[in-house]
From TrEMBL, chain A:
This protein's name: Creatine kinase S-type, mitochondrial
Lineage: Eukaryota, Metazoa, Chordata, Craniata, Vertebrata
Gene this chain is encoded by: LOC120044220
Protein location: Mitochondrion inner membrane
Source species, domain of life: Eukaryota
Keyword Transit peptide: yes
Segments passing through the bilayer: none
Enzyme class per UniProt: transferase
Binding site for ATP: 161-165, 224, 269, 325-329, 353-358
GO cellular component: mitochondrial inner membrane
From TrEMBL, chain B:
Protein name, per record: creatine kinase
Lineage of the organism: Eukaryota, Metazoa, Chordata, Craniata, Vertebrata
Transmembrane segments: none
Entry-linked Gene3D superfamilies: ATP:guanido phosphotransferase, N-terminal domain (1.10.135.10), Glutamine synthetase/guanido kinase, catalytic domain (3.30.590.10)
Disordered: annotated span: 96-117
PANTHER family: ARGININE OR CREATINE KINASE, CREATINE KINASE B-TYPE
This protein's GO CC annotations: extracellular space
């Protein structure tokens, strides 16, 4: 409480102002400055965490379900070495209450250290999103040996295209929500320099978004190659779209089967894709390309963000671990109309999306089917899971075509014990 | 709390040229004025509350603008922004406010008795009259920068002050998050409520964070005096009514504002104001009076006339659609208001609107009769 003494000392209106806020903030040690101007430090003291706690009553996202006043109180005044704060991590979840049917993550990392400094909130969010994966006790396996994949050739009567994507972050540079323009440009430089060293079937070219013509851009979007201008409030509230299109671009090899997105939602997104059903070849190119890019950046003294707790570190907690989404565009005219379709997908740990990517609707009876999981299983395990799943779906489709009945498979276990 | 630029000190390890934004496609005041040299000199500074140069200009970088529409391209995060980043903001202010110099003084005049006439705009043409301004509460950061606690503090203090208004100003507060969808839509249709922020100009500056927390609308029982809380500014104060009695609207405006100011003084604070910039608001375009006095007026003939733009320019007026800024006019009905904010007093600006709209209505009447308006052409104010 402001006493008449402090009022006299400060000689200003500030004391009365503070008292009227009734926040009970005139705790010991509050230094009254000789003016009305409060420093950031003083401002923080003036407003205890309870004054800043977000109103999450209408919210349906992982962050809103995990955050408590106690956690917020503990973490609010901490920052990572890059000065990234808790409020900045959770802003996107505060601004986007979500939808009763769709549970988004609701928070992002600003840098590698976010996951450590704010572990008290990230860990439960990760556990919620990744089906019980506990970063405190579990280790994530990495396996990019594509030759282990079996039965990776799909029936092309059904499978129109195959694709594997992941993301990689460059250690030492902050992530898209947090990065300054020069850091973002550095990410672009490091990446493009490395990619210029790729040879053979991986040799290719970089197209900076700022220099592309609108025609080139539309062509790449139509071919499912380019990323959208960010309009989703999930991304824009997380500050990722700042300075667009500065230092954003797309690199692809001459055959357009290996693509890198630079500085969209992550430092890099790496994509291997081709028409048809040869998922094994797609994954083989994926692994080879990734390993070569890693080698090329290491030659220049850089490396990817990775640790054994969380695997590859990316901006959104939903993409930790492998960051891997392996999927196909597949025609399932009969199966998609069967009421058991959803359950079959669930049990095989697959998800369906529209052919425009996340949050798009399907066209006709063609679906994007991909793995649900990212963390706790290796790349090889997840791709094999997708391969087995898609083969099963094709088998069901064929059965239904012949008028035979199908079976819902039993659910796959979550993590190896 | 700004939104991604807090690591200003760490950014300084990169050369200024590496951080300098690409403004080659841009058309806004900030892009016109900023140079690598200015950027270099100001990038290491921040206001006491931690607002940095990049925070000021982010909205201008993210919104290149349009060849025909010159936006400002920067915002303030607190009162001190205008001091600490003077080197950038003074020329922007000069450019935006018709040559207003860093040494100029702004006069405030909220005495409605000084307004001549204004009670007899023809209601056959003038559908409604309105005066709005903004006010910032000293001691709190502005919408781009404020924390949730501060924003709630602004709301609490404002509602307390407004709840003590009496007489024809007595009213009620509706917090945005407690309003039903139906109430909200009604207020929008009555032209009373502010939009959910969708404009990228606002979003990029960080003003829409935590929506709708701490936001709301207060209005008196007759819905002629309204206050918006925590939209683009701490407070937007609006007096309005149907018909053409601008004098009455301005009377109520001045009375209400003065009463609110007194109430805040009793609480130990005041509005952000200084003798150079007048009332301090988030966007440099609203400095000075922050005043926009306008009417919705039916001028289907005048608006199609070749000299319409020229007339407006000379009268120092601007046109907008009836949905507010960046909307289209509907059926020949325009929103006509003063173009200036800074360098003229409140009374002077409202006088310009009153006199200017009177003239436009006269011209409309003449055009209706098929007569020429050449002899009515005004001189440049």
């Amino acid at each position: 409480m402001a006493t008449s003494f402090t009022r006299m000392m400060s000689g200003r209106n500030t004391a009365v102002l503070l008292a009227s806020l009734g926040a009970g903030t005139m705790a010991t040690g509050y230094l009254m400055t000789d003016s009305n101007i409060l420093s950031a430090e003083e401002r923080r003291k003036l407003y205890p965490p309870s004054a800043d706690y977000p109103d999450l009553r209408r919210h349906n996202n992982c962050m809103a379900h995990a955050l408590t006043p106690a956690i917020y109180g503990k973490l609010r005044d901490k920052v990572t070495p890059n000065n990234w704060s808790l409020d900045q991590c959770i802003q996107t979840g505060v601004d986007n209450p979500g939808h009763p049917f769709i549970k988004t993550v609701g928070m992002v990392a600003g840098d590698e250290e976010s996951y450590e400094v704010f572990a008290d909130i990230f860990d439960p969010v990760i556990k919620d999103r990744h089906n019980g994966y506990d970063p405190k006790t579990m280790k994530h396996p990495t396996d990019l040996d594509a030759f282990k994949i079996t039965n990776g050739m799909f029936d092309e009567k059904y499978v129109l295209s195959s694709r594997v994507r992941t993301g990689r972050s460059i250690r030492g540079l902050s992530l898209p929500p947090c990065c300054s323009r020069s850091e973002r440009r550095e990410v672009e430089r490091v990446t493009v320099q490395a990619l210029a060293g790729l040879k053979g079937d991986l040799a290719g070219r970089y197209y900076s978004l700022g220099d592309m013509t609108e025609k080139e851009q539309q062509q790449l979007i139509d071919e499912h190659f380019l990323f959208d201008k960010p309009v989703s409030p999930l991304l824009t509230s997380a500050f990722m779209a700042r300075d667009w299109p500065d230092a954003r671009g797309i690199w692809h090899n001459n055959e357009k089967t290996f693509l890198i997105w630079v500085n969209e939602e992550d430092h890099t997104r790496v994509i291997s894709m081709e028409k048809g059903g040869n998922m094994k070849r797609v994954f083989e190119r994926f692994c080879r390309g990734l390993q070569q890019v890693e080698k090329l950046i290491q030659e220049r003294g850089w490396e990817f963000m990775w640790n054994e707790r969380l695997g590859y570190i990316l901006t959104c907690p939903s993409n930790l671990g492998t960051g891997l989404r392996a999927g196909v565009h597949i025609r399932l005219p009969n199966l998609s109309k069967d009421p058991r379709f959803g359950k079959i997908l669930d049990n095989m740990r697959l998800q369906k999306r529209g052919t425009g990517g996340v949050d798009s609707a399907t066209t006709g009876d063609t679906f994007d089917i991909s793995n649900n999981d990212r963390l706790g299983k290796s790349e090889v395990e997840l791709v094999q899971l997708l391969v087995d799943g898609v083969n099963y779906l094709i088998d069901c489709e064929k059965k239904l075509e012949r008028g035979q009945d199908i079976k819902v498979p039993s659910p796959i276990t979550q993590f190896r014990k | 709390m700004p939104f991604g630029n807090t690591h200003n000190v760490l950014k300084l390890k990169y050369a200024s040229s590496e951080e300098y934004p690409d403004l080659s496609q841009h058309n806004n005041h900030m892009a016109k004025i900023l140079t690598p040299a200015i950027y270099e000199r100001l990038r290491s500074k921040q206001t006491p509350s931690g607002f940095t140069l990049d925070d000021v200009i982010q909205t201008g970088i993210d919104n290149p603008g349009h060849p025909f529409i010159m936006t400002v391209g920067c915002v303030a995060g607190d009162e001190e922004t205008y001091e600490v980043f003077k080197e950038l903001l003074d020329p922007i202010i000069e450019d935006r406010h018709g040559g207003y110099k860093p040494t100029d003084k702004h006069k405030t005049d909220l005495n409605p008795d000084n307004l001549k006439g204004g009670d007899d705009l023809d209601p056959n043409y003038v559908i409604s009259s309105r005066v709005r301004t903004g006010r910032s509460i000293r001691g709190f950061c502005l919408p781009p920068h404020c924390s949730r606690g501060e924003r709630r503090g602004v709301e609490k203090m404002s509602v307390e002050a407004l709840d003590s208004l009496s007489g024809d100003l007595k009213g009620k507060y509706y917090a945005l998050k407690n309003m039903t969808d139906a109430e909200q839509q009604q207020l929008i249709d009555d032209h009373f409520l502010f939009d959910k922020p969708v404009s990228p100009l606002l979003l990029a500056s960080g003003m829409a964070r935590d929506w709708p927390d701490g936001r709301g609308i207060w209005h008196n029982d007759t819905k002629t005096f309204l206050v918006w809380v925590n939209e683009e500014d701490h407070l937007r104060v609006i007096s309005m009514q149907k018909g053409g009695n601008m004098k009455e609207v301005f009377n109520r405006f001045c009375t209400g504002l003065t009463k609110i100011e007194t109430l805040f003084k009793d609480k130990g604070t005041s509005f952000m104001w200084n003798e150079h910039l007048g009332y301090v608001l988030t966007c440099p375009s609203n400095l000075g009076t922050g005043l926009r006095a306008g009417v919705h007026v039916k001028i289907p003939n005048m608006s199609k006339h070749a000299k319409f733009e020229e007339v407006l320019k000379r009268l120092r007026l601007q046109k907008r659609g009836t949905g507010g800024v960046d909307t289209a006019a509907v059926g020949g009905t325009f929103d006509i208001s003063n173009a200036d904010r800074l360098g003229f007093s409140e009374v002077e600006l409202v006088q310009m609107v009153v006199d200017g709209v009177k003239l436009l209505v006269e011209m409309e009447k003449k055009l209706e009769k098929g007569q020429s308006i050449d002899d009515l052409m005004p001189a440049q104010k």
